[in-house]
Amino acid sequence: MAKGRAEGVLVAALESGHAAAVKVIDGSPLATTAIALGVLQAMGCEVGAAAEFEQVEVLGGGVPVGRIATRLP
Question: What is the pTM of this model?
């Protein structure tokens, strides 16, 4: 389960009881999902079903100019 849309905030919880809460300081929701998935993975959770959301494409003028990806220790 995940809940977002509050000025760059996303909270995600798994059946196992693991959860992640993310707040992006500038209020942008762009990276919240990738960050939450990275946190859950760092806790040892399997997030394979959401793998397509682990990276976010960044557009500039409608053209891909970069990507956001998390890699936590």
Answer: 0.74
Own/partner contacts of 29-37, CB < 8 Å, gap of 24 or more, are 29/4, 29/5, 30/56, 30/58, 30/68, 31/56, 31/68, 31/70, 32/4, 32/8, 33/2, 33/4, 34/68, 34/69, 34/70, 35/10, 35/70, 36/2, 36/10, 36/11, 36/12, 37/12, 37/70
Per-residue pLDDT tens over the stretch 49-68 = 888 888 889 999 999 999 88
What is the reported pLDDT for 6? Answer: 74
For residue 48, what is the DSSP state?
A: G
